[in-house]
Give the backbone structure.
Amino acid sequence: MARCSHCSSIFFGGVREGNQRFCNTKCQQDNVLTVMSNQIPSDIVRRDLIALHQSNCPRCAGPGPVDLHTAYFIWSFLVITRWSSSPRLCCRSCGRKGQVGGILFSFFFGWWGFPWGIIGTPVQIFKNIGGMFGGPNPAVPSKNLEQVVRISLASTAMERGMRPQPTPPVIAQR
């Protein structure tokens, strides 16, 4: 068994790149974006981050601030249970609507599996409630939003033909 260098999932087989292993090609490509995103100068990231945070909501076109709000879902049937999270780039109002949707969906479709549906449904419902009453601070952009901006900038740079700089090997000193 191996652990993916990007998402940390445990897997058999997978894709190799140098001394790193990935569970699939998508994780390998995402890792390239992550490496490139960490090489973008912080002043460029900060400029785009503040511009996005203070912009209008991309969902409702209402006033910002815009941030990443996550809704949590679960559905189950007999012995099959599936839970997921759905991050949304939107204003707080649209984020809360998504979280209310997650609560309702999970309440009606989450309980029907044993044992994980019964265990997971209250967890997902409380995560949505926590997001509704907590969530990102509207005064400052969140770390998750910063990561979205970094990945977006890296993706744009790669589309223009730029590639990440190789990272020098770490040499342990005694």
